[in-house]
Amino acid sequence: MRVRPALPVVGLGLSALLLTSCFSAPDTTEEAGAEETGDRIGVAMLNPPRSGLTPFSDDAFKLARWSTGETLVVLDEAGDAQPALATAWEQVDPNTWRFEIRQGVTFHDGTPLTVDQVVAALTAATQASPKPRILDGVDLTATADPDAPETAVLVRTGDIDPLVPQRLSSPQLSILAAAAYGADGVVDPVGHGTGPFELVSVQGTSSAKLDRYDGYWGDKAKIAGIDVNFVPDGTARAAALRTGTADVVEAIPVSQASLLDEDQIFEVPMPRTNTLYLNTERGVFADPAMRAAARDAVDRDKIVDTVYEGRADVAQGLLGPALPWAAEGRPARTETAAGNPAGQEIVLATFTDRAELPEVAVQLQQQLEAAGFTVRQEVREYSQIESDALAGAFDAFILSRATVLDSGDPVAYMYSDFSCEGSFNIAQLCDPQIDEALQTASRIPAGDDRRRAIMAAEKLILESDAAIPMLHERVIQGESGDFTGVARDSRERELIRATTAATTAAS
């Protein structure tokens, strides 16, 4: 059995010592054979649970990354729905979808997966307060199919929604056993999932333990379990990888990456774009020629090299390499000719919560001033600046923005940021042609036609110069090399899989 050494404290600050000292000792289970072993994998995660691991919160993504909570469908790399706890589905009318439920599945507490429990789990999600983010603005109901009450579920939406299967892939709609759902609305996932690993204990915000579930409906896990520690401090997480205290480490800071072996670092493209939003409604950038001047002034390569130390991707559009179909389908666009800023003053704003953004602001100020603008910066905490940004108080605003939400589809992001009635329209953009393109895309079922419509909408948004995408972020994942089959997932839904296995025999 592999034994991890104690984490050394020399060279770490007190905060790192306190955080890393919480790592649990490895399990000493004997090997179970060549395929299934007694090896356990240690994982250091960035964020501790914030809502008691209820699936109705962002904690649901931890349940997915540990392969303990499962959904009716999952998404492939392109964002298309694939079978999971549902084996097939079809749209039976504009507002209704029918899902065939997988037979022979048991929850970790030994109870069977049934149609009634799927209905109960989805209904609990619709009644949660607050609702899971994936159900914002969605009127969804689930019932047993009266023609096949033992095997199929009908999911209905108030409005026509071509993305119902993708929506049901959200970890926030994981299906748990009946005993998980308390009368007070509290949901306890411990011992109540269906995945290859059973969550057996949680120690508050410090650690969690999962064991292999031998009754899993699919291929059983190759390792005996997962030992999770929550380590918010980036220096401590990197130290855990260097010393062998953890086998997999989430979100290693760029500043720590150079201290690790390059063969232990994996950069995963994120569906997140660092974008300069320009106020199209009033001020200097109400003039398209001035927006074009700002566009031409931005040196993306320099920002990536200096602020991100080369660990980001230069943006060619709003959607980056985390969506591999975007680059292939991006049409050529027509650019507005740039005007002469002639010293016009602009206010460039951003926030401090993401450490790199103030540094990006410094670079952009220099670049915009070199182009002829006079630039004044305004930098605050996000909670203190968001309302002003949404009200159009600034000429330009730097934002790191997720470009796909839980459905794996970027239409919702584009609509909120660039439609006339968008709730997050920092650019104050209102273009009927863009609105029409977004509405067209939203009505098309998932697949190649929808993706082409999305790229047509992106083309119009970029031609407006309301948003100047600068770079696509990456997350740095650390791996010891002692295990294979660890997922490197841009959507952060997978991490430890049933196929994750030790690279060498335990010793």
From TrEMBL:
Signal peptide range in chain numbering: 1-24
Entry-linked SUPFAM superfamilies: Periplasmic binding protein-like II
Gene3D superfamilies reported in the protein's UniProt record: Dipeptide-binding Protein, Domain 3, Periplasmic binding protein-like II
InterPro entries: Peptide/Ni-bd (IPR030678), SBP_5 (IPR039424), SBP_5_dom (IPR000914)
Taxonomic superkingdom: Bacteria
A matching Pfam family: SBP_bac_5
UniProt keywords, alphabetically: Signal
The Solute-binding protein family domain, residue ranges: 82-423
Protein's UniProt keywords contain Signal: yes
Keyword Signal: yes
Name assigned to this protein: ABC transporter substrate-binding protein
High-level lineage: Bacteria, Bacillati, Actinomycetota, Actinomycetes, Kineosporiales
